[in-house]
Design brief:
ATP-binding; binds BIS(adenosine)-5'-pentaphosphate; Adenylat/UMP-CMP_kin; 5 strands; alpha/beta; Adenylate kinase; five-stranded parallel β-sheet
Amino acid sequence: MRLILMGPPGAGKGTQARYVADHFGVPAISTGDIFRANVSQGTPLGVEAKRYMDAGEYVPDEVTNLMVRNRIDEDDAAPGFLLDGYPRTLAQVTELDGMIEFTGHRLDAVVVLTVDSEELVQRLLQRAQTDGRADDTEDVIRRRQEIYLEQTEPLIGVYRERGILVEVDGMGEVDDVTARIFAALDEIPQS
Ligand code: AP5
């Protein structure tokens, strides 16, 4: 399976990604997690990414695309993968298309989690108290939401036109959301 998990900040992408990836036996690849790992290790990539992440802005496409290309080339992603948080721009969609086409495979489905905007903010403010993520302040959360609406939400239409969009209600208990995702994806023929 080659899957994308999309949704606004706080929709539950990271939470659900691990269950979905386990279910299909593929790695969950989170661009946010890879950036954060680089930030904490102080790598040049981390130093560059941090200034965008802390402001709630997207890391430039060329940086992100190269990072994903390298990750997808790793052996564990040969049978498939679940992308959490990539692509987020139209340029990233085009780049990913090229990466997948090069391997002779296709994208099976794009799952979009939908969650009320106030619930999103509440989830992230709550996480701020427990995890202390640098981008979980109220101002930065609002900026992340704006950027999502401007740059990433339009991707939903692109994938809908391709007939591979799966919209899943992301409200409610984590287990219930997982069950909805499985029910929707189990209908999809695997490549
Ligand atoms: P990233 O880490 O992907 O952040 P995000 O998109 O803002 O998403 P979050 O991690 O905040 O939310 P999520 O949807 O994963 O929800 P989660 O499961 O964590 O990216 C961070 C930054 O990296 C970006 O802002 C950007 O700068 C950069 N970046 C990343 N990808 C990029 C790209 N492709 N291009 C350019 N830049 C990029 O859940 C959130 C909270 O809610 C958790 O506390 C969780 O426990 C809780 N929760 C989850 N589900 C439920 C539920 N059902 N009920 C109650 N609480 C729940």
